[in-house]
Amino acid sequence: MNPFSSGTRLRDMIRAIRACKTAAEERAVVRKECASIRAAVSDNDNDYRHRNLAKLMFIHMLGYPTHFGQMECLKLIAAPGFPEKRIGYLGLMLLLDERQEVLMLVTNSLKQDLNHANQYIVGLALCALGNICSAEMARDLAPEVERLLQFRDPNIRKKAALCSIRIVKKVPDLAENFVNPVVSLLKEKHHGVLLTGIQLCIELCNQSEEALEYFRKKCTEGLVKVLKDVVNSPYAPEYDISGIADPFLHIRLLRLLRVLGHGDADASDSMSDILAQVATKTESNKNAGNAILYECVETIMSIEDISGLRVLAINILGRFLSNRDNNIRYVALNMLMKAVSIDDQAVQRHRVTILECVKDSDASIRKRALELVYLLVNESNVKALTKELIDYLPISDQDFKGDLTAKICSIVEKLSPDKIWYIDQMLKVLCEAGNLVKDEVWHALIVVITNASNLHGYTVRSLYKAVQKSVDQETLARVAVWCIGEYGDMLVNNIGMLNMEDPITVTENDAVDVVESAIKRHTSDLTTRAMCLIALLKLSSRFPSCSQRIKDVVTQSKGSLLLELQQRSIEFDSIIEKHQNIRSALVERMPVLDEATFSGRKSGSVLAPGVSTSLKSANGVATSAAAPLVDLLDLGADEPPAAAPNSSGGNFLHDLLDVGPSPFPSQPVTTQAQKSGTDVLLDLLSIGSPAPENSSSAPDILSLTQDNKTSVSPLDTLSLATGPTLQASSSGMMDLLDGFGPSPAPPKDNGPAYPPIVAFESNSLRLTFNFSKQPGSPQVTQIEASFANKSSDAYTNFIFQAAVPKFLQLHLEPASSNTLPRNGNGSVTQKLRVTNSQHGKKSMVMRIRISYKLNNKDVLEEGQISNFPRDL
Amino acid sequence: MIHFVLLISRQGKVRLTKWYSPYTQKERSKVIRELSGMILTRGPKLCNFVEWRGFKVVYKRYASLYFCMCINQEDNELEVLEIIHHYVEILDRYFGSVCELDLIFNFHKAYYILDEVLIAGELQESSKKTVARLVAAQDSLVEAAKEEAASISNIIAQATK
């Protein structure tokens, strides 16, 4: 090397980087190198371009940005010599990918190099084209590649064949051009060409049905013969891998035969002999042999049925399955999954071994085995397999538990022979892995429980016992609390005993204990606590003797910081205390939930989400509409009016407490709601019944409330946060809640969906915002800004300006006046319209500037408003 | 089809990456992070396959290096193990009992060899001898060019003395 050359050698740079002790040192070295490379790039330095590019590649591997070197690759490729081209193409493949525009610039150089006299340069170009070409380049250069398939040197032919695979993948229309050249490639003796020719042939068959037919007719026999020759070939040191001549060629031939034999009896027949030979004669003590056997089994499985061969294949898999090598067991499980659809019985024979694999220490094997077990479950073995899986659940790996739980639940739901078994298994799962159970699963469980009327007593007793043992499983607690609320009387009185059950003694206080401990547990979330409150309300009626105790528990939630809990506990407290006469009717058992509707909804009704969106628009509540029971128990949403409209599609969700046939002169809610067809928009206590002509469209409800806004009633106080949900207009209900006037519930302003805010306040000025929304356009908020002058002098030339970030759009209307009288005697108002394109995701923010003249002096005040209510 | 080839050291350093399917720079570093987390933590006796994002990654450890190849679900994992071994043996012959340092300082050579083994994510040559011959031929082309350049500069140097 020239001692006067600038910069360091590649080797020295690598050494320097490796000598770095900290990441910061490394960054410093890299920065220095990059700087000198950049300098060389801008000087257009020719001598060290290849070395700089090599350095850049190393830096690139370390994860630093190297885009400035892309053009250097192109320059090196355009250079005449082989060394420059070699490093240039390497850089091209490393630093660029097919989606970069720069790549287009290389098309011309590639074309020249593909026609170069030096075959190694042709090889470089083919390699680069095969690894990174884009669809446009494929189209432009396909003729060159096609021609090279007949090049004199086999090493170019094989590269051209693989290059063609990429071209055909990028531009499937070009497939037919390659069909004829491939036929001659398949007749070659050179292993490399044969290997790549077969791969190209497989790709063409995948792309075009015609090509497949053509090859099937023309080449099947020849390929069978080639395979025979390879299998029977004598020892060839060049291709030998552990005693087998060229396993790679074996595997590719088997793969192509699979493609040709699939769905064609004649072709399948012609290859049966050689397949039998491969399956029986291949040595299986080394990986290479097993790889061939594995491929052979797959081919036997997918070609047309030839009696005997399949037995052979399944036997090989059986041998694989009992192999000590984990790799072999893994591929066996993988292949057995495909075999299940062909010969279920044969796979069932290995069930015990497969179940053992579910408990393997290797995560990959466990996962495969679980998938396979899932496929193997049927009516006859569901009980035994489920028992095995559930028994394994407590000792399984933490990471694996989620998958396992999901699969068990799915098996139980799909194949349970009877309800009692279903309930039993689900309880076991809930006890062991309740926290991993998905919402749909326990919702479905509750649906099943309500439908099994003869098992109510049994279920609630089992749950009671289970929840004593597994305290920390939240889902179990939810189901238990729900059932105790519904069927508490059956729990204490041992009603509906089954023969196999041992009677247990549970007092009313014990039952309340369960609910109380669940509501008090600090890990319980809002949904659980809300469910507990409802259960308590129900129990207060079922267990009159505990009424006072329940009231105390409910009262404790009155101070909850969660608005939903606070509000409900106040309501429920009032019901328990003051409305004894209606309580029992209010808390009747839930009607039986309709299983068909539920499963219909589960399989994805389109309706629900749509409805819920519109609901959301109406009152700004984000209700997740996916699962019906979420709606049923929709206390989970952390927005205040969660008990508001149920966005359910099923008529079984009339309302949480089902006051449909209530003793009050309220409207015939239920029937009317059913008529509406889509949905029942009732709130928790069914107070807010929809307007008679309301066909579940949310905006109607909103407009209704807006009409109501004027009617000042005690209820409005309550509906502060709930906004549109509780409607004063439903007459008969008024007295139910009239105890609420002086309630500690948050205060005053009768009202609008969003409380007004003081947006800005200084010594001299106060700015208040009042919000309103148009029904149907949740993104748009109307703001009425009113300004009050706190000083003793009037302001003139009063101008208000506002700015918002990009996701908001602001429209300012003219102010009512430009003079602001002193001492707050009158105010200036101005209307703003803000459209929030990220509605529901981002809250509004605004920056404001207010200028005015005070005693002929200009005053400027600025500020930022970020205390907008959420969901504007 | 092989979607990408990774060489990761036991410390999680990347020694070679080759992408046959398009991944952006961001995705690439994410893939490397994810996979080295998954693979380096696996015990020695476990199987050589991990399932990842609907693909399978076949890996094999040689001394301090993990050779990883990502393939489709339906591909033959056992064969990919053989391909990895095939590549390693060629490297071994080329460098003469290869070690990690060889691959660090001569990373470009490792790439040149890989380009003779795989193109477009498919196997190109099953004969180690042929690969060795092709790489050697290209190396000697480079050497010849270097010597020529050196002799020319010598002539120039003498002429200008």
From TrEMBL, chain A:
GO terms for cellular component: AP-1 adaptor complex. InterPro entries: Adaptor_Complx_Large_Subunit (IPR050840), AP1_complex_gsu (IPR017107), ARM-like (IPR011989), ARM-type_fold (IPR016024), Clathrin/coatomer_adapt-like_N (IPR002553), Clathrin_a/b/g-adaptin_app_Ig (IPR008152), Clathrin_app_Ig-like_sf (IPR013041), GAE_dom (IPR008153). Transmembrane segments: none annotated. It is a peripheral membrane protein. GO terms for biological process: intracellular protein transport; vesicle-mediated transport. Residues 752-869 form the GAE domain. The keyword Protein transport applies. Residues 640-675, 816-838 are annotated as: Disordered. It is found in: Cytoplasmic vesicle, Clathrin-coated vesicle membrane; Golgi apparatus. Belongs to the adaptor complexes large subunit family. This is AP-1 complex subunit gamma. It comes from Tagetes erecta (African marigold).
UniProtKB/TrEMBL annotation, chain B:
It is found in: Cytoplasmic vesicle, Clathrin-coated vesicle membrane; Golgi apparatus. InterPro entries: AP1_sigma, AP_complex_ssu, AP_mu_sigma_su, Clathrin_sm-chain_CS, Longin-like_dom_sf. Its main location: membrane. One of its GO terms (molecular function) is clathrin adaptor activity. PROSITE patterns: CLAT_ADAPTOR_S. Residues 1-140 form the AP complex mu/sigma subunit domain. Belongs to the adaptor complexes small subunit family. Keywords: Cytoplasmic vesicle, Golgi apparatus, Membrane, Protein transport, Transport. GO terms for cellular component: AP-1 adaptor complex; cytosol. Subunit of clathrin-associated adaptor protein complex 1 that plays a role in protein sorting at the trans-Golgi network and early endosomes (TGN/EE). The AP complexes mediate the recruitment of clathrin to membranes and the recognition of sorting signals within the cytosolic tails of transmembrane cargo molecules. The keyword Protein transport applies. GO terms for biological process: cytosolic transport; intracellular protein transport. It is a peripheral membrane protein. Adaptor protein complex 1 (AP-1) is a heterotetramer composed of two large adaptins (gamma-type subunit and beta-type subunit), a medium adaptin (mu-type subunit) and a small adaptin (sigma-type subunit). This is AP complex subunit sigma.
